Structures are given as structure tokens and as C-alpha cells.
């Protein structure tokens, strides 16, 4: 239960501060500021809950760990459930805060393509971008967590990697690389965001699976 509670809290923090920064301060922060909000959220949580749950806070990361044999199917299911509930809690808190501040709650940091994208990227472009960004993010996580010598800096590396994939992806899709992070705001916003959310669930899982199988192959070859 401690692991699942940690995943719940970690995902809630990521969504509240990451999506919150995009929704509340997006115009003043711009791409770099929003990217750093997501990255710093991961860095903070990695050193608090990492030793307990691994700080996945992302169903795509948990899928990669399942493929790598680092968790059971039952654990995976409970991790994902905890992450989704955490993401929903983060969005509920963000929604209440924005309502109390009299802000427009139609923007909760949701992802999108077409007219929902800053550059109007197509659905195929969005799928490709999210697969690539998730691959890079998860591949980095697998690499840095597989070497015990990197344990002291792994949280920083992972957080900065999340930030740099956001720097590229924010203008394109809003950057998901995390199905829970995308599902929560889409549910609350509804409309096109909810219709399009399948892209930001499927693509991260595909990218994570590709990263896991690629890392397994490389690790096997290295031996």
C-alpha cells in the first residue's frame, strides 16, 4: 500500500504543478517555464518517493518496468490505478484553485492535435511525436536506473529529460508522454480534448514498449 500511496501522491503533484503551470502561468512562463515545472516536479518526487515506489508516476513507465520484469502484472495494475486516481486528484485541486481565482477552467493543460495544437499538427504527427518523446524519456529512465552508480543523480537526470522532451513537444501536442497526465484534464475539459485523448494514451504506451524492448536488447548484447 505504501508504494501505491506514493504513486498516487507523486502523480497528483506532477499533474497539479505541471498542468497547473501551463493553465495558470502559461503565457508568462512560455515553453521553457512549463517544461521546467514538469521536470522539477519529477525531481522533487524522485527523491521523496523514489526509494519506496520507484517514482514511476506514469503508466507508460510502469509498462516498461513490467516488460523488463521489474514488477508483476498485479503490481502494474495497482500502480496504474493509483496513478490515474492521483492524476484526477491533481486536476480536481487545480480546477478548484482556478475556480476560486476566477480563472478560465476550459484550459487545464490538456493535450491536443489539429485545432487543439499550437501549430495544428495532424493526428498522425501527434502519434509520431508522442511515440518518439516517450521512447526517449523511458529509454533514459531505464538506462539511468539500471546502473546503481547513478542512483544519486538519477532523479535529476530523469527530471531534466522530462523537461527537454517538453521543450520540443509543448507547441506540438502539449506533451503527454504520460497517459494518466493526459486522461485527467481531458475528462474535466471534455469535448475535443476527450475525443482526442486516445492518442495520448496509445502513443505513450507504444513508445514505452519500444524503449523497454530496445533496452532489453542492448543490455543483453552488452553482456
How would you sum up this structure, described in words?
The protein is mainly α and 223 residues long. The protein has a single domain (2-222), classed as Up-down Bundle (Glycerol uptake facilitator protein). Helices cover 76% and strands 0% of the residues. The chain contains eight helices and no strands. The mean pLDDT is 94.
Topology-level CATH name? Glycerol uptake facilitator protein
Q: Work out the radius of gyration.
A: 16 Å
Structural class: mainly alpha
Overall, the morphology is: globular
Mean pLDDT: 94
Helical content stands at over 70%
Tell me the number of structural domains: 1
Q: What portion of the residues fall into strands of 2 or more residues?
A: under 5%
Order of helices and strands: HHHHHHHH
Helix segment count? 8
Which residue ranges are poorly predicted, with pLDDT under 50 across at least 5 consecutive positions?
Answer: none
Give the tally of β-strands.
Answer: 0
List its salient traits.
223 residues; 0% strand; Glycerol uptake facilitator protein; 8 helices; globular
How is the topology of this model organized?
Blueprint: H1 2-53, H2 59-67, H3 73-100, H4 123-145, H5 154-169, H6 179-189, H7 191-196, H8 199-222
Helix pairs in contact: 1-3, 1-5, 2-3, 2-4, 2-8, 3-6, 4-5, 4-8, 6-8
Amino acid at each position: 500500500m505504501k508504494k501505491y500511496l506514493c504513486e498516487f501522491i507523486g502523480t497528483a503533484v506532477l499533474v497539479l504543478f505541471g498542468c497547473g503551470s501551463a493553465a495558470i502561468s502559461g503565457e508568462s512562463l512560455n515553453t521553457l517555464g512549463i517544461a521546467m515545472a514538469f521536470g522539477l516536479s519529477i525531481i522533487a518526487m524522485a527523491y521523496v518517493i523514489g526509494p519506496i515506489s520507484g517514482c514511476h508516476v506514469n503508466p507508460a513507465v510502469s509498462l516498461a518496468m513490467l516488460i523488463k520484469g521489474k514488477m508483476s502484472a498485479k503490481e502494474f495494475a495497482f500502480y496504474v490505478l493509483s496513478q490515474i486516481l492521483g492524476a484526477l486528484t491533481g486536476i480536481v485541486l487545480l480546477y478548484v484553485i482556478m475556480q476560486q481565482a476566477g480563472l478560465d477552467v476550459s484550459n487545464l493543460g490538456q493535450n491536443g492535435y489539429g485545432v487543439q495544437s499550437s501549430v495544428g499538427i495532424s493526428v498522425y504527427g501527434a502519434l509520431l511525436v508522442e511515440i518518439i518523446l516517450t521512447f526517449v524519456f523511458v529509454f533514459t529512465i531505464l538506462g539511468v536506473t539500471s546502473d546503481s552508480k547513478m542512483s544519486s543523480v538519477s532523479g535529476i537526470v530523469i527530471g531534466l529529460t522530462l523537461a527537454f522532451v517538453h521543450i520540443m513537444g509543448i507547441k506540438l501536442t502539449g506533451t503527454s508522454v504520460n497517459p494518466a497526465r493526459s486522461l485527467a484534464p481531458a475528462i474535466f475539459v471534455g469535448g475535443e480534448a476527450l475525443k482526442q485523448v486516445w492518442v495520448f494514451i496509445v502513443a505513450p504506451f507504444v513508445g514505452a514498449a519500444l524503449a523497454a524492448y530496445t533496452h532489453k536488447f542492448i543490455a543483453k548484447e552488452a553482456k
